[in-house]
Specification:
Elements: H1 10-32, H2 36-55, H3 58-79, H4 86-111, H5 113-153, H6 161-193
Transmembrane segments: 12-36, 61-81, 88-111, 117-138, 172-194
Keywords: Membrane, Transmembrane, Transmembrane helix
Protein name: Stage II sporulation protein M
Length: 197
């Protein structure tokens, strides 16, 4: 089962990283054009974001961060089981990037220079690890989708699919561990900088 091996070229990872960056830029631009109703709804998010970190509630920070990353990884994981799941994997990267772009823009607009520091510490640093996990997850999902697409359009017997699916699931478990590391890093940053928020 090597139908998905073309996806392992280095340019593909750059494409997926570009999708996240484009999403972040779209998120920042979207934030600039939001109406007052949307902005007031977002201010609730940013205030709770800052309040949770300034209170130092590590359990809530860990659960929020880990749950958010898990949802995105789960959608990418499931997209791999569709022979046409490739666009969904890329769309998840764009959407996650948009979320980061909106969050960083909002913190900057509310807190000014202090917001830029908050964004860098509590959004950008953990986002690097989560983004790396999502990029690898998207690559694996697209590879799996390509394998299934080849199976759909071929007439011969296909052996090794069970092992391929098992390996696919194990890779996502490792990526889930990376999401846990990102959540733990966010907690560590809160411990270090909670008194300065």
């Amino acid at each position: 089962m090597n139908s998905g091996t073309g996806i392992y070229k280095s340019g593909v990872l750059a494409f997926f990283a570009g999708a996240i960056l484009i999403g972040a830029l779209l998120g920042a631009v979207t934030f600039c054009f939001m109406g007052s109703d949307e902005l007031s709804m977002l201010s609730v998010f940013s205030n709770s974001f800052v309040d949770v970190r300034s209170s130092g509630d590590l359990e809530e920070i860990l659960v929020r961060s880990f749950f958010s990353s898990t949802v995105f990884l789960a959608v990418v994981f499931l997209s791999g089981f569709s022979s046409l799941g490739q666009p969904l994997a890329v769309a998840v990267l764009l959407l996650r990037g948009m979320g980061w772009g909106v969050a960083m823009s909002q913190l900057y607009s509310i807190y000014g220079g202090h917001g830029a520091l908050l964004s860098a510490m509590f959004v950008l640093i953990p986002a690097v690890i989560t983004a790396a996990a999502l990029i690898i997850a998207a690559r694996e999902a697209v590879a799996m989708s390509n394998i299934l697409l080849c199976i759909v359009f071929s007439e011969g017997q296909h052996s090794g699919l069970r092992q391929t699916v098992r390996l696919y699931a194990v890779k996502f478990l490792v990526l889930e561990a990376a999401a846990a590391v990102a959540a733990a890093l966010e907690c560590l940053l809160t411990i270090i900088f909670a008194g300065r928020i």
